[in-house]
């Protein structure tokens, strides 16, 4: 079975050789998402986290799944001081559906305004 590669128009054009989402079998893998180009690009980590979760939710729904089926996230953050804001936004959105998670600190992201990037893995139900 070949993977299904999808770009979601509402998330903006891709700027390199990647897809927003790849579905293989019953699993959806996302590229890293940021607040770049959004109204929250210049806001703090908590607001940027909310924006990224909105993007992930939209992407998941476009691929026939939801945040309830989130399996794993990897968060790339630039400042340990942002963790309380990021954590609060995640707890608020996850509810009872807490995924496995990894947190990696990086020196910087591709734009100095960005506080974090999140990539995710979802379970999907075949149609």
Strand content: 25-35%
**Oligomer type:** single chain
Number of strands: 6
Order of helices and strands: EEEHEHEE
- The average pLDDT is 94
Under CATH, the homologous superfamily reads RutC-like
CATH class membership: Alpha Beta
Q: Can you tell me the number of structural domains?
A: 1
3D shape: globular
Largest sheet: 6 strands, mixed
CATH architecture assignment name? 2-Layer Sandwich
Which fold does the CATH topology refer to? 60s Ribosomal Protein L30, Chain: A
What is the first-to-last residue Cα distance? 15 Å
In DSSP terms, counting alpha (H) and pi (I) runs of 4 or more, how many helices?
2
Any idea what the radius of gyration is? 14 Å
* Lateral arrangement of strands in the main beta sheet: 1-2-3-6-4-5
Stretches where pLDDT is under 50 for at least 5 consecutive residues are none
What do these coordinates show?
The protein has 127 residues and is an alpha+beta fold. The chain has a single domain (4-123), classed as 60s Ribosomal Protein L30, Chain: A (2-Layer Sandwich), CATH 3.30.1330.40. The chain is 24% helix and 26% strand. It contains 2 helices and 6 strands. A 6-stranded mixed beta sheet has the order 1-2-3-6-4-5, with helices on one face. The protein is globular. It starts with a strand and ends with a strand. The model has no long low-confidence stretch (mean pLDDT 94).
């Amino acid at each position: 079975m070949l993977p299904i590669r999808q770009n979601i128009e509402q998330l903006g054009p891709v700027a390199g050789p990647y897809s927003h989402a790849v579905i293989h079998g019953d699993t959806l893998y996302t590229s890293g998402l940021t607040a770049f180009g959004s109204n929250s690009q210049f806001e703090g980590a908590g607001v940027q986290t909310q924006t990224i979760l909105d993007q992930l939710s939209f992407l998941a729904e476009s691929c026939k799944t939801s945040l309830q089926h989130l399996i794993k996230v990897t968060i790339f953050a630039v400042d340990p001081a942002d963790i309380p804001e990021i954590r609060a936004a995640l707890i608020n959105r996850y509810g009872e559906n807490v995924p496995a998670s990894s947190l990696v600190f990086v020196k910087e992201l591709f734009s100095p305004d960005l506080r974090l990037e999140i990539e995710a893995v979802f379970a999907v139900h075949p149609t």
